[in-house]
């Protein structure tokens, strides 16, 4: 007898096959805190496994990958988009000083292709393992008639924990703190609507070889988001004087740093670092200047650490040891006279003020 649900376009057997393909990768992320294993209606985590806290705070974050998924779909490559998701979610958790505990994911698609779904989830699981995060659950939803068969979208949420008096933020920032820039791996997962617009305006297909980019457009631009969580957690556990962190995502460089500075504080960032070639190539293809993208792309900085001056060199050294280039990019001042080119606050936060100055070489 024909299954009427299958006739409507939903293949539950394909969903079950996808689960079987991903089970081993998900299981590898499970720490001692995970209760109940794989496949329940809800994931369970034993908070006592996180250790003893005087006043524990739970931190949570949720995000997606955005239109970067269009590149993965264009060349049928889905094994890195999961790392992008984890980077967008878990690296927001560590910004408040929290250690991530667990994560869940959600995949909506036009048709379940088990191998494709398994590739996505394996990428999520591998990145969860790299950040010390247990992947405790997820959902794959088939939406025939709403999404095309090749289309999908991904989202996720994570929870972390931090001692109340160890949380990071603007109230800990002091005059003279050094702002450390930690290098990005490329575009990460922000500003891809602009990327796709640039290519579309020049009639460049995502699967085309582009000389300025040095390869097939989508392959080059799918470079996964760098993960900062584990190195930063280790620096915090070592007692280094990190006062605030800023994950450079949507909104660009200055606005994201301003969000974690107290009102009255200001930072000047010299335009002196070497911008990864991908940004210059895209700007050249689009016919605009790099300075016009400062509020959209990260331009080579994925994370800022606002650090006690006495520990600045140690933070840079630790970052280098983790394989992430880092450098002193500015210093916190209070009461400085601000010109119109400062950006003050963002995302509803009336924080400090940041400006980029100088000229790009």
List the helices and strands and how they pair.
Layout: H1 4-7, H2 12-27, E1 34-35, E2 44-45, E3 56-64, H3 69-74, H4 81-93, E4 99-109, H5 114-130, E5 134-142, E6 152-163, E7 178-183, H6 192-201, E8 209-210, E9 215-216, H7 217-221, H8 229-237, E10 242-247, H9 252-258, E11 265-270, H10 277-286, E12 301-307, H11 312-321, E13 326-331, E14 333-334, E15 343-346, E16 349-357
Parallel strand pairs: 4-5, 11-16
Antiparallel strand pairs: 1-2, 3-6, 4-6, 7-12, 7-13, 8-9, 10-12, 11-14, 15-16
Please describe the structure with a list of short key phrases separated by commas or semicolons.
single chain, Phosphoribosyl-aminoimidazole Synthetase, Chain A, domain 2, alpha+beta, four-stranded antiparallel beta sheet, 11 helices, 16 strands, four-stranded mixed beta sheet, 361 residues, 2 domains, 60s Ribosomal Protein L30, Chain: A
Would you give an account of this structure?
- The strands form 5 sheets. This protein has a 4-stranded mixed β-sheet, with helices on one face. Strands 10-12-7-13 form a 4-stranded antiparallel β-sheet. Strands 14-11-16-15 form a 4-stranded mixed β-sheet.
- 30% of the residues lie in helices and 26% in strands.
- The chain has 11 helices and 16 strands.
- It has helices spanning 4-7, 12-27, 69-74, 81-93, 114-130, 192-201, 217-221, 229-237, 252-258, 277-286, 312-321; strands at 34-35, 44-45, 56-64, 99-109, 134-142, 152-163, 178-183, 209-210, 215-216, 242-247, 265-270, 301-307, 326-331, 333-334, 343-346, 349-357.
- By secondary structure, it is an alpha+beta fold.
- The N and C termini lie far apart (69 Å).
- It folds into 2 domains: 6-166, 60s Ribosomal Protein L30, Chain: A, CATH 3.30.1330; 170-357, Phosphoribosyl-aminoimidazole Synthetase, Chain A, domain 2, CATH 3.90.650.10.
- Its EC number is 6.3.3.1.
- It comes from Agrococcus casei LMG 22410.
- Pfam families: AIRS, AIRS_C.
- Keywords: ATP-binding, Cytoplasm, Ligase, Nucleotide-binding, Purine biosynthesis.
